[in-house]
Amino acid sequence: MNSGEAPAQRPVTLDITVEDVNKEAPGPDPPEPTISQTPSIDSVIPQEDSIDLGAEFATPQEDSSTTPSESLMDKLNDQMMESVMISDSPNNSEEDEVAPIDSFLDGGEEEDNAQETPGSKGEQSEIGHNTTEIKVAMEEEEEEEEEKGGSVLKADEDTKEQPDTQEQVTAFVSPEADAQSPSDLKSGEPAPQEARGTSPKEEPVPVCTIFSHGTQPKSLVPDGFQPTLIKSPSFSMGSGGGSEEAVTPSKLTAPLVCQPSPSLSKFFTDNGHVNPASDFFDSFTATSSFISVSNPNAELPPGSTAPAPTQAPATQPQPFNQLQAVFSGSDDPFATALSLSEVDRRHDAWLPSEETRKVLISVATQQYSPAYVETNRLTMPGLKFDNLQGDAVKDLMLRFLGEPAAMKRQVLTANSVEQSFTGLKRLISSKNWRAAIDLMGRLLTAHGQGYGKAGQPTSHTTDSLQLWFVRLALLTKLNLFQNAELEFEPFGNLDQPDLYYEYYPTVYPGRRGSMVPFSMRLLHAELPQYLVKPQEALDRLHNLKTVCLAVRSLKLWRSRLSRVMYSMANCLLLMKDYVLAVETYHSIIQYEPLQRVQLLSGIGRIFLQIGDVKTAERYFEDVEKACQMTGSQPSHTTCVLMNRAFVYLSQNNYTEAHASFTDVLKIDPKNPVANNNAAVCLLYLGRLKESLGQLEGLVQQDPALYLHESVLFNLTTMYELESSRSTQKKQALLEAVAGREGDSFNTQCLKLV
Amino acid sequence: MEVNQAKQEHLLALKVMRLTKPTLFTNLPVTCEDRDLPGDLFAQLMREDPSTIKGAEALMLGEMLTLPQNFGNIFLGETFSSYISVHNDSNQVVKDILVKADLQTSSQRLNLSASNSAVGELKPECCIDDVIHHEVKEIGTHILVCAVSYTTQYGEKLYFRKFFKFQVLKPLDVKTKFYNAETDEVFLEAQIQNITTSAMFMEKVSLEPSMMYNVTELNTVTSGEDGESTFGKMSYLQPMDTRQYLYCLKPKPEYAEKAGVIKGVTVIGKLDIVWKTNLGERGRLQTSQLQRMAPGYGDIRLSLEMIPDTVNLEEPFDIICKITNCSERTMDLVLEMCNTRSIHWCGVSGRQLGKLSPGAFLSLPLILLSSVQGLQSISGLRLTDTFLKRTYEYDDIAQVCVVCPYTNNEC
């Protein structure tokens, strides 16, 4: 070996096994000469303090190219890739619309319409008597109709019934709340409720439409106040009162035979607001027309008149089969009002498996009642852990800053907000996701799907599934992947018959499709990739993609397709299958032409990440061309400069990289990425103090933007490099964090522990 | 130096951080649709997150740079860069500070400090910064030795050292294989395996031939104007992946003349490999000189200069043999041609070829035919050196494909 003689500039010589064909056998590697001449290192070391770099920097075994949030990527390191075929959709005919899905279910639906049996009629009329508990959630396709529908509902409003309903609901719920969170109760209310077992009749299939954007064509008298929750079949089917107790642990509620149902609605009534529903509905998907319709209070002045056709059935127990007859006639105004919203249909469309489809048809044709579907075909979710609530920031404060300081930390908890979506929204937007998860746990407990309820028969509504979705989504956001997986497990592949509207013909008459939000399917598909099962994630994503392609011509489904493609590309990137990841990102451009610049830049960064600077530059050139074509938007100029900076960085030219990031700041002085990246460049230029000063200043001036885990991680890293007093400085950061951030803050980036 | 020096409180603190390339922050997109319960909330959270790509929040790979979070691995051929910061933790001014950074390897000690001159004074809360770079050229244990000496305001001279130990690992496994062509060309197959834990972009894998050879790289498919790499569009190597590179070496004309005389071990050249990883982190290696044992030709080398690949059954065809005297002495040769089961030589066997001096060669046209269809091996040439009465046998010199010209019509 000539390493000894090698002058400094010379590249290193690597030992090599040389096989000559003439010698048949490929010999083993010869021993490394370099090693053999190693003098004992120990002799060099005096007895002064010797530091293994491992201690200073953590384990040397780890991949150097990880970011704090990337540890899961490392886990994926060993995963072998399989190539996955990406089938692009060559066919763009606008004709096929949702047809494929419809055709699967059409048979069932027709029969459903045709034969409304006397049995179901009876049910309907019973519900009719129970009018106070049933929320009208009308759903309209068009905005104009929205108004119409709204006024209808308005007229129906019976003011006398309002307190009634409210109290009922409260009454019903409070025992449960006792068990869970006593503080939630309004103390005055329990007494009246009990007296009131108002609903005189059994309610075989109670209805809930809290967040409903669901169609409720059979809408009865709307109380204009609260939607109520559907009960689980086990509570309502047949046995009535007895099973109620299962839902409501407290025996106090025994007389409440025919509750409006265990109710999420509590969380919307029991909050002391006169009209919480409006808050809720206003905040919830303002863009969606049907939802606002379902919120008469919000939309309409009291006492407005003009009852619309839909009202008729509401006021008196009109036989449901009549309604159905009306429903099938196309010219009837009733039908117009009641007919399925096309938007809904598109939104909920899904392809059930063959088996599920059969069950749904059977249900629709009344061949057998949903009650007799084998339990292994049912979805029986329940909370898998009770209380997540915790605040790592506060814990750290206790440990480092002492009790008095920690007491100052104020965050919203599940208890401190309205037990409603308004509260939920506050928790989510204030980044108290743990508290939000707890709150959703309560709501689900009220729905009979609480802790330990997994495996017990229950029923589902659009709302309960939405709650599950948000809970699982937040668990994922908090990197609590295992918890999310546990709670997802009872949902199987999200294709059980009881997750389809057709399964509840009386609750959602005429409504078809899946109650599972598409976003929940996507989450379900993505989840395994964070648990070192990227192949499974890809399989699921491909299934989603197949369905998206089946209905791809619609705008909604196109955007869903592009979202699925994003997930696939992200998953492939996690798997480090860069070829397919790049291909997939590239294919998204056709669906999201407006994101061309971002996508091409992203692909360029992937190439930089794997070290292929030249190809990255080619992509960045394409970005510049795309930017020129669209005219000069500031965001595009920023993007071009940013890309340039990354190229300089990859060429080890930190001076120019810093200059480019600074150029971005001339256009967009508040750009947090450019600010942070410029500071990082300064460090590589040996200007630690400047870099620190810059980042510190940013965090102080604009904590909203800079109390971000990546920035704080950089800052704490520099503190550690700068002086021996990094702990104090980190504690100061902790205080800044405590003043602003919610319980979902990832304290690891402070590196205090 | 005092004995208990290590325990002494120092006014200065020395911190070292390895500067691998920063990494791009990755986010975890969780989205919902407008009609879902959170409505616009999730989208809003993602838009407000400074690390997301605005307008394409679902794109996981962001633009935010984060500093290296651990030492990571360092591989032979990469550059070891490190930030060295000496900070005055005390509240007094410190004078005559000298910071020295040495790298101790198994075989040598290198000084990496940018400057060796002392800093006059350092005020409280101030630092001395240095960024050192070193391309590592040895495998195994390395120790970064940082020594700081300074004078307190009371004139006390103090000194301390810190040691940072790290291992340099081997990034690539390289295996080579030579194929000798019937002509004087040599083909080199190099198998390069990435034995690191991250993907590697192979920027350059070239063979630097020794002075005797010209090299042609056979790693592109020439279609159109640009040669397309045989490895596809993306030239990166996943961990543990192996890739084969192929090179063709031709002796330069001046050496080709003597090709027959090349004997024993010859130096072919060396492989020069440049790779890059995260954000252009670069590494470079050269192999040691690749050596090849020249095929032994004995005293006389018989090679073919011309031979058809396909011939007709029972039809005579021409070949041209080249006979080179690889020995140190002059030979007087007689050629015998022995028929085999399928190969029939035409012409007189036992003819004199005359004298051949060392290193000289002669070209010999011969005619033969095959009586059997299929792939036939040409065998049966015998050369006898009348001086030493030594006979050299040449069998399986080449192969020809023998076809029946009438097959198509008859069948």
TrEMBL record, chain A:
Its main location: endoplasmic reticulum. Component of the TRAPP complex, which is involved in endoplasmic reticulum to Golgi apparatus trafficking at a very early stage. Also plays a role in chromosome congression, kinetochore assembly and stability and controls the recruitment of CENPE to the kinetochores. The keyword Acetylation does not apply. Residues 154-163 have a biased composition (Basic and acidic residues). Transmembrane segments: none annotated. The lineage of its organism: Eukaryota, Metazoa, Chordata, Craniata, Vertebrata. This is Trafficking protein particle complex subunit 12. Residues 21-222, 295-316 are annotated as: Disordered. Component of the multisubunit TRAPP (transport protein particle) complex, which includes at least TRAPPC2, TRAPPC2L, TRAPPC3, TRAPPC3L, TRAPPC4, TRAPPC5, TRAPPC8, TRAPPC9, TRAPPC10, TRAPPC11 and TRAPPC12. Interacts with CENPE. PROSITE patterns: TPR. The gene is trappc12. One of its GO terms (biological process) is vesicle-mediated transport. TPR repeats lie at residues 638-671. Pfam families: TPR_19. Residues 61-70 have a biased composition (Polar residues). Keywords: ER-Golgi transport, Nucleus, Phosphoprotein, Repeat, TPR repeat, Transport. GO terms for cellular component: endoplasmic reticulum-Golgi intermediate compartment; Golgi apparatus; nucleus; TRAPP complex. It comes from the Eukaryota. Residues 305-316 have a biased composition (Low complexity). It is found in: Endoplasmic reticulum-Golgi intermediate compartment; Nucleus. InterPro entries: TPR-like_helical_dom_sf, TPR_rpt.
TrEMBL record, chain B:
It holds the Pfam family TRAPPC13_N. It comes from the Eukaryota. Residues 10-168 form the Trafficking protein particle complex subunit 13 N-terminal domain. One of its GO terms (cellular component) is TRAPPIII protein complex. Residues 172-295 form the Trafficking protein particle complex subunit 13 middle domain. Residues 308-402 form the Trafficking protein particle complex subunit 13 C-terminal domain. Signal peptide: none annotated. Belongs to the TRAPPC13 family. Part of the multisubunit TRAPP (transport protein particle) complex. This is Trafficking protein particle complex subunit 13. The lineage of its organism: Eukaryota, Metazoa, Chordata, Craniata, Vertebrata.
